[in-house]
């Protein structure tokens, strides 16, 4: 009997089935420094204990994307080892800051199943929730993936497609307890624009570009516990090209977006997202954002901004889809998210 | 007079001579995160404070290979700067867990000397012991290296060849104090196989592959304080190829072996090992294991498994040597070690 | 209105103008480990709590170059985003050790302005001071940069050229409080030479070489918060060559200089420096030092050594400039600095 993990196949999943992706994994200062080395992020709250204290937190929290990557990575062995594609995200909300030394775990429930008409694959919808060692939820999201069947002859389940929100309503955003941006400027932070400076429909070209390198995307991908061979093994892909993990592109685009969105310190929700095209080493990633919505929050001085964040390997800011409704071939990522920023 | 370290030559060593490789060097969370970024390791105890506490330790210990690399690296300037080859290891035992914040030092004693018949080189056997700041031993091992003579005319020493065990007996393994795997499953850890599931002679193909990159092996090698020019300087080698540090291959193979040996949480001894062929950037490393022996330990729920771990850049699982007794040219590493896993 | 930071231009600066580069950014064990992975540094005090305590410090301080890089990086958005060249450094002094967990900020004052005769650029002299969260200064330096004018027609300011010392006098060096090298040897540290072993005029060839890789210089450069596109984006430069950040070369050369200057544990001042030629991935960096001066300090057992540190991609040790007074085309860096070492 083989001892290696073959993963689950479409017919293994049942509605209501839950997976506990243990054990809790501890994150800390090492991940923080590596994140700054791997991505050109300059958002300040995540790397400044003094600024964090000025805005009402005990110390600098871990970057929200580190929390996402760690929780997501924990689910891969149970959920997406046999995934053909990661099709979408919905209703992703960060619920509570994570600090160095915290340990993160995750639980996933199967909430939707629908076999594809080809009989070889099916779509699995899951709700994953990440929590800390105290059992407090820190992140929750729905994603859906296309998963292979082990046996094409296995009977199709009754289709269940969950009803998902098109986006998280502003009122549903979880602002970190105690967050107060009233004194944000005292820190000397370099964030010239406030929520009121951003207009719905505005396009922000983040200007800077990063040419992807093999070593960097592999280090990032391992750090998030994703060890899928397509990211590491040149013999596993056509033309000896490693495929770059979609999560790496999300972090790269978010980091690039600092230039123009300096005050968007916290990611607080992801409404949806698509990995529009694959990326490879040698591609130069740029990013642009479109302001979709702005909103107040109950926290002092804290506003919310809903943004479309697009990563591209060549197309201009503002270019997204062609007349056929398909993504421009240079578009890598189309992400709809909420951030918190000073009003 | 030159100020640079020319290292010691064969004729400089005497039986009983000792080297103290100071000062103690502090390891911490940074090394832990880098280890996860550089290797696809997913063994859980090393990255989970909660799991470590479930199994009786105060918090997550440093990966055993980090301890090995740090102690080994400390010995290079005194022992192997003029080494032509690292010939073998014997009787390597981890004696005590190392935690973030601990400082590691090492002492080496010369225990064997034998000049080669060519009169230009000789073999030096050493016993190295690593210790923490409290003076407690954390690791001990014998290795032997072929070292150049400074002066071929220097007289040969009386040959002394130490009597070395073929392997560490199960009874000689140092199980970490307090280790108790009885509650291991409570952590939700994803380790489907227990000691009893492994049969002597069984071959486990670990399936996954990693194509080596220059930046990653250099970062790893520096982290272990090995600054030998063959690993960093393309002008120091034929065909502008940096040689990849053998220690990097050990860590890569051990990390890959997670897939099939998820429960083998602790390395506790290395019985012997050979770097069978050199590795270079662009090689794709795979690994397979053969179960050599299993044993009980006195600790609750803790068993020991002796494994042959083989890293290869192309040959199939189970292929080791040809009819001529020589390693297959694709075999990079042949390591005989003991791990601890839940029974 | 564009939201991205266009930086300041020559005509935006006024004598006496100050910039507070907030917020304070926290450094820690992650940066420490990454520094050891990115550079072949083996200076011991920065990585050994026990040695640090032997020499009178509470624990291992952060590498002085980490402090320099972090403070320098903080100034880039306000000072050198539109710089054509970083022309020089003067009177750089480290004033106090920085420890893991400290947070670093910086303030810069404009101290000199002189428009160039072409009317398109000008030289800006600045004094930057880095401080910790307690408001204590940790580093101060003058640098001058050539900055573009936004509008060539803008009137030239009255030229002000600050009077700068040719070098920091030995008496002006800030020895860390409590530093005492009397017991240095107790640590077992491998530093065979003491201050008295170095003679003025002596040239030390540090022998080892490192071939630069894209991934490593990008990771280092991001870690220092320098996100200038010439370092990351191959489309921003001729021949698709990323330019390597000058600060990366300083750290590489300083790390290589360990071999021959093992005891030069602390950098305490930089008297001047020039980035003589650009460096690119694939270049093999070597280093040599010339002893310029030695001096006593008031601290027990602590001497000061003034060194010229030269990084080269090919020229021999001792080769610096041609008969025309221009740097040899292989010379990358010419740095004049003071270090502290045991007498």
Topology:
The structure is a homotrimer of 343-residue chains.
Chain A: E1 18-26, H1 29-38, H2 49-54, H3 64-79, E2 83-94, E3 103-115, E4 121-131, E5 137-148, E6 203-205, E7 210-211, H4 214-223, H5 246-256, E8 266-275, E9 284-296, E10 302-312, E11 331-342
Antiparallel strand pairs in A: 1-3, 2-5, 2-8, 3-4, 4-5, 6-9, 7-9, 8-11, 9-10, 10-11
Description:
3 copies of one chain form a homotrimer. Chain A has 343 residues and is α+β, with helices and mostly antiparallel strands. In chain A, 15% of the residues lie in helices and 31% in strands. Chain A has 5 helices and 11 strands. The first copy, chain A, has helices at 29-38, 49-54, 64-79, 214-223, 246-256; strands spanning 18-26, 83-94, 103-115, 121-131, 137-148, 203-205, 210-211, 266-275, 284-296, 302-312, 331-342. In chain A, strands 1, 2, 3, 4, 5, 6, 7, 8, 9, 10 and 11 form an 11-stranded antiparallel beta sheet that branches. In chain A, β4 and β5 form a beta hairpin. In chain A, α1 (29-38) packs antiparallel against α4 (214-223). Chain A is globular. The termini of chain A are far apart. Chains in contact: A-B, A-C, B-C. The interface between A and C is large, with 47 and 42 residues.
What are its keywords?
homotrimer, 343 residues, eleven-stranded antiparallel β-sheet, 15% helix, 31% strand, globular
Average pLDDT over all residues of chain A:
95
* Secondary structural class of chain A: alpha+beta
* Total number of helices of chain A: 5
**What gap, in angstroms, lies between the N and C termini of chain A?**
60 Å
The proportion of residues in beta strands of chain A is 25-35%
List the chains of the largest interface with their residue counts. Answer: A-C, 47 and 42 residues
Rg from Cα of chain A: 20 Å
Low-confidence stretches of chain A: none
> So what's the overall shape of chain A?
globular
Largest sheet entry of chain A: 11 strands, antiparallel
Approximately how much helix is present in the residues of chain A? 10-25%
Q: Strand-and-helix sequence of chain A, N→C? A: EHHHEEEEEEHHEEEE
Oligomeric grouping of the chains: homotrimer
By DSSP, the count of extended strands of chain A is: 11
